[in-house]
Amino acid sequence: MTLEIPKLSRPVNSLADLNAAFDGLNENALACFPWETPANKPAVNFKVAHNNESIFLSYRVQEDEVLARFSKHNSPVYTDSCVEFFVSFEGDKNYYNFEFNSLGTCLAAYGPDRHQRQSIAPETLGLIQTQTSLNRVQGQSHRFDWQLVIQLPISVLTNSKISSLSGLKARANFYKCGDDLTTPHYISWNNIGTSNPDFHQPPYFGEIEFL
Q: Is pTM, for the whole model, over 0.90?
């Protein structure tokens, strides 16, 4: 099954425009717990769209604990409350990993596997726009609801010659983790069939297409 990524019909000149555009899009659930399912499962949904020049992502997370320590790009944000987007464009054996904590701080790199990664420069990651919000779930004082909206311009895809997203096919996965939380967890959109937790698994990416 291919996840079709819609092209936004309205202009996006601000994050407010983007939030309005997201209102009409379907949510996709992160529902796979490839290794161990925690007793209090986080609930995670995401939306994704594009406008040829940027990929837009919106993650909505409900979980019992939120950790947000890192504010400098390319810090180990995967140890905080973290959402991630890994993508490999058609014809490329390499893939990008974009990882964001709940503050919008980004860790990103490019390469063929977990060990051979080329970091994307912090000044390039500064081109990514994010908007975050954090609230308590109404009626559940122990549970938090946080949202991260991301505008990822194609200029950040520094190892790819992409001038327009429409018509492109790719392989990707979407994730939620938190390595240093009291109860660590690992959640994915497309399931992963390895024995140990590892999101750097291109063979388990799912198919996506930019409309």
A: yes
